[in-house]
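Pilot study result, target chain (309 residues):
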Amino acid sequence: MHGHPHSHGHRHGHGHHHADEEGRAIAVAFWLNFIFTIIEFVGGLMVNSVAILSDAVHDLGDTLAIGMGWALGKTSQRKADSKYSYGYQRLSVLAAVINALVLIVGSIFIISEAVPRLWAPEMPDATGMLWLAVLGVVVNGLGAWRLLRQSSMNASMIRWHLLEDVLGWLAVLVVSLVLMVWDVPILDPILSIGFTLFILFNVARNLRASLKVFLQAVPADVDVQALVAQLCEPRQVGGVHHVHVWSLDGEHHVFSAHVELQGAPRVEEVLALKQHFRQLVMDYGFAHSTIEFEWPEESCRHGEEGLAP
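Predicted structure:
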């Protein structure tokens, strides 16, 4: 005889509004990048700037990654079905991982383009560079600003895509202004390498967070020990074991545990415990929870695996 309080703490109205808003923000970022990538290729050829052409290739990768993030992000909002009982939320984490890999490859490409230019710098058309740089800062800055209020891993990774481009264009802007006054084209590759290394550091940190979700690590924002301690407080509880905590997408967490009952609790007491635990787990921010009650002398089929209390 087992009890299974199964709670789904979804805030549907707010969640769907948030998802729609994020989808629109990512859509704006995609179209801005797509149109601007075409402008970059044409502009880079016109002003004879290898830096702008290499950034155009990088932006092409960004556009593909953002488009994929947009599509997977939308799919991740689909409800649970017989094939995916938890829904499709983890697809947004997959998009974040793939986007990170695209960013890393793109950044390595930029460095491979910039390093040879340290020894053989070429003078581009500084005025043309300046106008393209201003446009680049505005377009990518607008896209990044639209995503500021979004908190998902997918949105965060796309925001880094755009921030990388903003920093890149600021570098081009500074270099174009300097080149109008002094003949020091070597500044271009130096700045390109600097901002690319900065972005790579942040992408690595985001990629690590995404991989932890994939490997079902305990979310950093959950105090599991405190929750288990509260589950053990009622006098009818003899112990808690087989505790598992993981996250679906970095935002929606899942909790499961076995609660050992002691003494001879009445059915009414067990029902009250269920309700208390259901609310307690929701207060800790879990989207899904399953708690199994074990009666005195009942053996646990799973042994003692899971987190210790």
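One observation from the pilot: The chain has a mean pLDDT of 79. A full batch analysis is planned for the follow-on phase.
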